[in-house]
Amino acid sequence: MFSTQNLTSAYTPEQVAKMLQLSKNTVYQLISRGDIVAKKIGKLYRIPAASISFFLTGLDYDLYQADLRDRQNIKQVTDLLKQARSSL
Amino acid sequence: MNQQSLLAFVDSDVIISSLLSDQGAAYALLHQLSQPSLLISNFSERELAIVIARLNIASEKLDSLISNHFRTVALNQNLATIKQRYAEFVTDINDAHVVAGAHLTHSRFLISYNLKDYQIGNIRAELNVVVLTPAMFLQYLRNQKEI
Q1: Any idea where the domains of chain B sit in the sequence?
Q2: Residue among A60, A67, A88 whose CB faces B46 most closely
């Protein structure tokens, strides 16, 4: 649902309400309080995926990205570490 | 926050990750906190030496990282004893020394990417050690500053 690819996407308040299992009004309140950053285009709001990162991953967007970067190497690291530990 | 409440034992996968990328959460964590908050053990040093050799990373890089950012604690028990004592907290018995390191150093946190191989519920309940990934720990630190 929340991949690197769709982090570049933007959502409507209705879509975000469905993803976070909140009412649409709650999403608008979160936008109003600044808890969710949204861009108003005419009468419509669009919410970048990055601004709801914390709600979906428990991490701010920059930390989520940093986590993903390490995970690109983690399988190799884990495999090598398991080999090393078995030889201690 | 006092220093004791931030004491974190760091799994070797985090240290290796920080050597592989300076854009990742592991690197950010190690360069945000420093000794005496971050701990490793004599067993960590041994396995790290093996892994970085296989990755063709210069040993000087590891030595510099450890001396600048970590306090190394010698676990005065043999590995067999450690495995017996901490077996219930891991799914891979060879990871037992990591849990032992966190527990015996009275660390509040164990930082690792390998959450699936640790019984994190039991570790928290019985050893009072919270197991987190680097990004989760950074988020925790960030949230503490905001309170």
Answers
A1: 4-146
A2: A88
Chain A: give the shortest CA distance to residue B84, in Å. 15
Owning domain of residue A75: 5-86
Chain B residues whose beta carbon lies within 8 Å of the beta carbon of residue A78:
13, 113-114
pLDDT (tens, 9 = 90+) of chain A, 88 residues, equals 444 445 568 899 999 999 999 999 999 999 998 888 899 899 899 998 888 888 888 898 899 999 999 999 999 999 999 999 999 8
Question: A71, B113: Cβ pair inside 8 Å?
Answer: yes
Residues A33/B105, Cβ–Cβ less than 8 Å: no
Q: Which CATH class is domain B4-146?
A: alpha beta
Number of domains in chain A: 1
Which residues in B66-93 are b (16+ Cβ under 10 Å) and which e? beebbeebebeeebeebbeebeebbeee
Q: What is the CATH number of the domain that holds A50?
A: 1.10.1660
CA distance A39 to chain B (A): 25
ipTM score of the complex?
0.88
* pLDDT tens for each residue of B36-73: 589 999 999 999 999 999 999 999 999 999 998 999 99
Q: CA B5, CA B3: separation in Å to the nearest integer?
A: 6
